[in-house]
Amino acid sequence: MGQYYFNLPDLGEGIVEAEIAALHVQVGDIVTEDQPLIDMMTDKATVELPSPVDGKILSISGQPGEMVTVGTPMVVFEVEGAGNADTAPAEAPKTEEKTPEAAEVKTPEPVKAAPAPVAAKPKPVSPPKAPKAKTGDKPLASPAVRKRALEENIDLSQVPGSGPAGRISHQDLDDFIAAGGRISHGAKKARTGVEEIPVIGIRRKIAQQMELSKRSIPHYSYVEEVDVTEVEKLRNFMNANREEGQPKLSILPFIMMATLKGLEKFPECNAHYDAEQSMVRRFDGVHLGIATQTPNGLMVPVVSHAEVRDIWDMATEMMRVTSAGREGRASREELSGSTVTITSLGKIGGIVTTPVINHPEVSIIGVNKIVPRPMVINGSEIQIRQMMNLSSSFDHRVVDGFVAAELIQFIKGALEQPATLFM
After folding, report:
1. Residues with catalytic annotation?
2. N or C: which end of the chain has fewer CB within 10 A?
3. How many Å apart are CA 37 and CA 366, to the nearest integer?
4. Domains, the chain, ranges and CATH?
């Protein structure tokens, strides 16, 4: 038998380190070739590392949340044959080096004084423990005992009975009260527990990205209401008359279309800003990030090259990449490269939101929920209209408030006159 050292391989695109997102095996497991071993998270995606060999796992280096550099030994296998121990590094590099101060500084242990005799404290009298009542069990007690328990505000299910079959007597009730075991009906117990949850994996990436955005980008927010009555009528008509294979349209593809047209007029909002180089990069193509809630947290799958798609293709691609994101199947390419982001919480979208810009983008379009509201039409007529707010944020360093407002007003106009979306 030999040993096989499995090092973190090159994950591509110049990545030099990655985070352990999940371990699928443990020491002692017998694994087969291609069996999933470890999920590694990079800045863009989670990569599943399969076992390179058949064998038994002797050791695993690292735990979820730890960073590992490319080339670091991660798993040692016991395998048939010679293995690759001869080519493995003599000593595995460690992901975290000890500081000199923490290495081997020993201080003499203080001489402990002989403990002084301590008078034994009287053992506190604990309330008698109640027997665990079975579900649906009714404590055995006489009517008089029940009446007294009710008057004393005591839950009889908590009182241990000393009689036959656990029957509760007056004396049991007295003992329970004397021991401090009075429990009020319906009383709430104070909760004092604290659960510590490590922020690792995707959650840590989300935290870092949000912190970067809020720390470095001066957000300018703009909210406008949009009458979507006409676009809703058009959407319902198109859904009722769609051809086989065409997806059912939500409001989002129409908003994507309106945003696409708006960015053609205001290209400064379809850009990235590199603060270190003082450089704005405007893009000819429009790659729409769709903020998506997944079981692992917020992700932004990308509908690439929206400028060449019609509304059906845009809806189909949006559903494909967002489903891939929710199911953990999205590739690095599908999760990167957006030039502007749309975020929507659908029916729980609230009235107003303050979306955080997806760094290094400079614009994010937030969609609030659609609600019927009475509106004044033509100056005097009141109608119930389908209304929706757009809550959007812009990087005020490179997008002026006037330009941002013009973009949103353009999107509003396009949605209120939906025929213009197809002109």
Report:
1. 396, 400
2. C
3. 39
4. 2-79 (2.40.50.100), 220-421 (3.30.559.10)
